[in-house]
Design brief:
Structural class: alpha+beta
CATH topology of one domain: Alpha-Beta Plaits
Number of strands: 4
CATH class of one domain: Alpha Beta
Radius of gyration: 34 Å
Helix content: 25-40%
Number of helices: 6
Distance between the termini: 55 Å
Strand order of the largest sheet: 2-3-1-4
Order of helices and strands: HHHHEHEEHE
CATH superfamily of one domain: Ribosomal protein S6/Translation elongation factor EF1B
Strand content: 15-25%
Shape: rod-shaped
CATH architecture of one domain: 2-Layer Sandwich
Length: 224
């Protein structure tokens, strides 16, 4: 197992191919495995090895936090594709049965520890993501509320409109706009949460004040 010499073009090509379908050297979060391989590279991979370059730039962004990344850093030859010979010189003597047993035991312990830390970090990420407030879709609506005639008490009409209260509805500024023959309409702004308040509901509630309101129209509707 290994990448070969990561300071050579051949080693970087092996790394690039290895990362073609992976985000990290091991697992699904940055770990000490990424740091071990990153530190073995002399310079950023060339642009044509875009998988390796993407990974290199991403791991470089963790430079200040690298000590806190999960896992235990192993010999460089412990990472990479299984069919590539380790030429780093870090591998132990395969003829020493005691050393083989010892490193086999360490690998198991390190694997379990890395797995535990990775699961803890994933759980923390999921918890943090679940607590992130969802974006609430809102709209700003300008309403035209028309009275029956010029004798309608417009102050009372506005009072009736503003008396409508609902979760996700906030009334804003208003003004009276002449429409002719001495009649003025109420033009009033409101902000609504789209999944709680709609224009149909506003029209139904406003026109229910039939002693004052002849009709209601939407003059402007803008997403916020």
């Amino acid at each position: 197992m290994g990448f070969g010499d990561l300071k050579s073009a051949a080693g970087l090509r092996v790394l690039n191919d290895f990362l073609a379908d992976k985000s990290y050297i091991e697992g699904y979060v940055p770990s000490q495995a990424d740091i071990a391989v990153f530190e073995a590279i002399a310079a950023p991979p060339p642009a044509d090895l875009f998988h390796a370059l993407r990974w290199y730039n991403h791991i470089k962004s963790y430079e200040k936090q690298k000590a806190s990344l999960p896992g235990v850093k192993k010999a460089l030859g412990k990472y990479g594709p299984a069919d590539v010979e380790d030429t780093t010189g870090a591998a132990t003597d395969s003829k020493d049965d005691d050393d083989i047993d010892l490193f086999g035991s360490d690998d198991e312990e390190e694997s379990e520890e890395a797995k535990k830390l990775r699961e803890e970090r994933l759980a923390q990420y999921e918890t943090k993501k679940s607590k992130k407030p969802a974006v609430v879709a809102k709209s700003s609506i300008l309403l035209d509320v028309k009275p029956w005639d010029d004798e309608t008490d417009m102050a009372k009409l506005e009072e009736c409109v503003r008396s409508i209260q609902a979760d996700g509805l906030v009334w804003g500024s208003s003004k009276l706009v002449p429409v002719g023959y001495g009649i003025k309409k109420l033009q009033i702004q409101c902000v609504v949460e789209d999944d709680k308040v709609g224009t149909d509901m506003l029209e139904e509630r406003i026109t229910a004040f039939e002693d004052y309101v002849q009709s209601m129209d939407v003059a402007a509707f803008n997403k916020i």
